[in-house]
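Checklist before submission:
- one chain only
- standard amino acids only
- sequence pasted in full

Submission:
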Amino acid sequence: MQHYLRYTYLITFCFSIFCFLLFPIRADAQSAHEADSTLLYKHQRDSILASQYDISDLIGRIIHPKRKRVRSSKRSPITLMPNVAYNPTIGGQIGIKAVAGKVLGDPKTTTMSIAATSASITTKNIMVFYISHNVFTPNNKLNFQGAFALVKMVALDAGLGMTPHGKWTNEDEEVLANPEHRKYGAKYNAFTFNEKVYKRVADGLFLGAGLAFDLRRKITSSGPLGDVTPNTIYTQKHGFSPDSYNSNGVLLNMQYTTRDNPNRPYKGIYSDVGIRWNTTILGSSKNAVQLTTDFRKYFSLSKSDPAHILAFWYWGSYKLGGTLPYFDLPGTGRDAAVRTGRGYTIGYFKGISFAYAEAEYRFPILKNRFLSGAAFFNLQSASDELGTKLFERWQPGGGAGLRVLFNKATRTNLCLDYAIGKYGSRGFFLGLNEAF
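Returned file contents:
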């Protein structure tokens, strides 16, 4: 019996030594395989980028016309450019802008982090300074999203804009509904700060929380009836201060993302569902609870050329309780990137709850990606306090545009769009990166 026990101990000991030696070898082999796979991925990516042509290649060609044409995949992670833009809301804009994009971990498992800052002034005397970021730590363990902005705003206001004839009972309600789509003017100074921190809980799935502060000061509005405007009527009705208010609250969000690039995705999904609770505890003028949804889906239509893309976007904000100030009501251009509703000015349509849907086809014009095109169509719907329900009425918009490749390493595009809406609303929209 002891003889068999000795052999059992010996076999167990040898097996333990074998496992001890084997597993490190397997781990080393796995690490080597992962390293080779990452190098192959980077080589394939660099080969694709070297075949593309962006603004840096063009500038190099202009400065050194006789130099042998060699395209590089290397680019600075920071793009510095004049912030020249135009749209019907702001008029013409001039300023300076810096955009950064960098992968902070393994590019196979880490989403590109992006950040931007800008200072500008427009022909309508709008002044804006902002900093924004969307940062992913290695292997997407954490995601930080946030923005800080100081704005001196001069805006057009068209009331709630969705209410059909016959749904008001007095003159004040008619001014607020604005069925004739009269143009009112508004001015205010705004300070905005929001920051969310997401933690990855599964592949592509994140849970997050944060804070948001929106402060408006020196609010004035005017129009065809003097100081009787949709803003003053709504503000007085709901008991807000006429010249200043705060919307400060807590954010709770759930995000799911599989898109391959945040600037110009070729494939994947992005979705974010959140609750914003404005509370007087944080200095909000009134309590309010909003549910927000943001869903985007990208389909590449060609295996040989993935830049042929059909993209869909649905954005919504729904009242669950409380009251929002007039200029904080959800509406056209009230998404975080201020890109919804091409064809209309910011806030042209607004409501107690708001829904927005858009489809866009993106396609390359030149094989080297320097020029691309896009065609888009959108719909907006809003509810009000006069009986109009969400999804009862829709307002359309649409247009087409060109894309100029600014930085091929980050897929940063300059977008030039012409869009048309209803009621004579139309204009040229110039911005950086895709609308969604």
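Reviewer check: The chain has four helices and 17 strands.
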